Structure of BON domain-containing protein:
Amino acid sequence: MAIITISRQIASYGDETALELAKSLGYEFIDKKDLEKDLIDKGISKESLAHYDERKPGFWASLSRNRDSYFDYLREVVYGYALKGNSIFIGRGGFALLRGIPGCYAVRLVASDDIRIARLMKEFDWPEKRARALMAESDTNREGFHRCFFDMKPEDPTHYRLVINTDFATAPLAASIITHACKEAISPAEELEGLKRISELLLGQRIVNLIAFKEELPIYFLDAEVSDTQIVLHGVADSVACIDKALKIAEDLAQGRSVSTQISIVNEYKPYP
């Protein structure tokens, strides 16, 4: 039927709603543990996960090359799961990574501060002050994460097809609303179109990650634009030899597409501290 992304505030029934959806629709629920395992398998350290996973990075962390490897491998992992179709993502910028792709249905779950604090107090058996502090920390980290990686405010309702206030909805009710809305909004043709686009994005990201992190070619702001017939590399490099190596890597993965480059040459370009 579709790919559903759920963005949520802490204590707004995000995980509970995702689990209800997965159970009722028979979809795969991709949670934090799934993504972390795949990122670690691809070489992302636990330290990097601690710096970046739905957190507001510090100043130097936001400029580090580790930021790029985390973000680029996160994209590859998300695209890989999304290509299977019939999947549910929660958090980790899923709505932003899949934004604009046909067949992807973005949902935001919110609740009032008083309700969220009450839920946290009950869940952890905490006093109000401690629950309020956790809520504030979570909100700050999630906003910082989305600003750092996507230059977006997650609370902006225009990013989503549907926003649900769980002050007035249980997790089963929220899941039922999402199911009905998604079935009405996503056609089979749109879903197929979306899967095609995701396959192109996945190929492009695999090319980028192989060039940048496996072969460690010094090409900055690297992007691989993939369509039915061609692949175009973009970025900044300091030599023709480096660009030629990147072209060869892309050609090996091109699956019959032509490969060209719009990579600029800037001598001694060094963007990282």
